[in-house]
Amino acid sequence: xxxxxxxxxxxxxxxxxxxxxxxxxxxxxxxxxxxxxxxxxxxxxxxxxxxxxxxxxxxxxxxxxxxxxxxxxxxxxxxxxxxxxxxxxxxxxxxxxxxxxxxxxxxxxxxxxxxxxxxxxxxxxxxxxxxxxxxxxxxxxxxxxxxxxxxxxxxxxxxxxxxxxxxxxxxxxxxxxxxxxxxxxxxxxxxxxxxxxxxxxxxxxxxxxxxxxxxxxxxxxxx
Length: 223
Ligand code: IYR
Hints:
single chain; alpha+beta; binds 3-iodo-tyrosine
């Protein structure tokens, strides 16, 4: 392994403290407006927008910088239809058999059902896969580290980027999700993690009135 080349971090920009405070507050004000929605408009979204948001996702930190994420962007109506059919089949099983009373009770406030029309309505389905291993320069399998954490951070970046760009999104996780790799023809070492559904919200999109925890209820300042 070659020793790394170290360069000055010239991209870092220190800001005056008042500006830091203003930016932190403004960013929070923007992020608190984000919601998951389940009804999308079928209006088209420029692909450049999605590409830039995916570039942002690709700036996420990752274990040993393996960047073990793979995003498969789906717009083809026929493929979206296949994904919807497969997803609704596993959802019927989930709601009827797998979930159980406790889980269904926890989901009740979200009003979710086995029907997933958004998988066809939304212009973009971004299927997220985790590469359990990569390929080294010699073409041999190369181990990846902290794969789940790394991909989850990248998805977080993606959600922030989409919201910042003015799009709505939903993280969607049917279980089991093996059908996703089959439909999208992914290799076996890629583990399906979720589908990020994105586009404009439907005009009549509603969201449940949910409360977010207050800072004191999820942060401990340990001095
Ligand atoms: N995947 C199912 C159920 C579901 C589970 C959780 I945890 C949620 O936060 C939301 C839904 C569905 O999408 O209906």
